């Protein structure tokens, strides 16, 4: 494990409240706490007039056929980020041992086929509308590219279906929880290698049940490769001194399922190896289901972070100069998943996120 101390960890930490978590874990600190600073215990966030705010606008596809606009905005101080601590890949010191495996999909019929609650005609109409919004690349900053709507519809359904099946099996989703029994409203599963939130290190099995993480499906690797290719083609076209990113051969995938109250505090992904960082090997992130407000910046200061929406089908890549950016999820926007997806894949309300890395 490279990166020394602050692996996937914010730079500063508030006093522990409920959980007895090893000091320094980024799970300790909610976004709210990060905004307020280590000494604050208040839950509300007030002003939106911070001189530290930086506003950036880039192009984003809209729901209509008109000229697409994508907003990348600073994190407004007026935004209430709630008091929950960071979920999922944040904050686990235990598991839900004995509990039924978490199913990211709603109930299916006995034959395991999907029940459609809306007519195929309606679903196809919505799919056509979405396809007309063509995919698009957005340059967020050096080393950081967002591929809007990159994941094909069938691939999105396939990814959810595979994660659902893996998630209810051995090494599947579990509820990260605190030692005192407090639970977080987010589920996590690792593929390839296990990432242990307590030691912030990778291993072959997970400490609490010795389960081996399932392997990364080959189809997922192929999509990662295609996304890297698309990103580099885009960067090449951009020209100038824009850096292309080195190819990633992922051996780790963290799968997070955020419920609609899920969040993830600003942190860096620093648990991979030094050679991986030295080469600037990127993190490739798939978003499915409800939209996430994603924060990113050079420090763990939420007020200085920029914000971009990650919608279902989006692929975010950050490597090279952006490999160690601070990033997190400030909120999940309820009811924003495309209807065709929730109908077909029967995904629960919330968001599925897969981040691929190379150890
Ligand atoms: O959900 C996301 O988009 C980010 C996930 C993440 O930062 C992580 O798993 O380390």
Summarize the structure in words.
With 359 residues, this protein is of the alpha+beta class. It has one domain: Alpha-ketoglutarate-dependent dioxygenase AlkB-like (Jelly Rolls), CATH 2.60.120.590. 18% of the residues lie in helices and 22% in strands. It is globular and about 50 Å long. The protein starts with 30 loop residues before the first helix and ends with a strand. Bound molecules: 2-oxoglutaric acid. The site of 2-oxoglutaric acid (AKG) has 14 residues, from strand 8, strand 11, strand 14 and strand 15. Belongs to the alkB family. One of its GO terms (cellular component) is cytoplasm.
Write the layout of secondary structure elements.
Elements: H1 31-36, E1 56-58, E2 70-74, H2 120-131, E3 136-141, E4 144-148, H3 153-167, E5 186-191, E6 194-196, E7 201-203, H4 218-238, E8 252-258, E9 264-267, H5 274-278, E10 283-289, E11 291-297, E12 306-310, E13 315-318, E14 326-333, H6 339-345, E15 351-357
The chain binds 2-oxoglutaric acid (AKG).
2-oxoglutaric acid binds near residues 8, 254 and 269.
Number of separate structural domains:
1
Strand order of the largest sheet: 3-4-13-10-15-8-5
Q: What is the overall number of helices?
A: 6
CATH superfamily: Alpha-ketoglutarate-dependent dioxygenase AlkB-like
Secondary-structure-derived class? alpha+beta
* Uncertain ranges: 1-33, 35-71, 73-98, 110-114
Strand content: 15-25%
Bound molecules: 2-oxoglutaric acid
CATH architecture: Sandwich
- Briefly note the CATH topology name: Jelly Rolls
Please report the distance between the alpha carbons of the first and last residues: 8 Å
- Major sheet, described briefly? 7 strands, antiparallel
Keywords: Dioxygenase, Iron, Metal-binding, Oxidoreductase
Region (Disordered): 1-97
Biased composition (Low complexity): 38-52, 80-97
InterPro entries: Alkb, AlkB-like, AlkB-like_sf, Oxoglu/Fe-dep_dioxygenase_dom
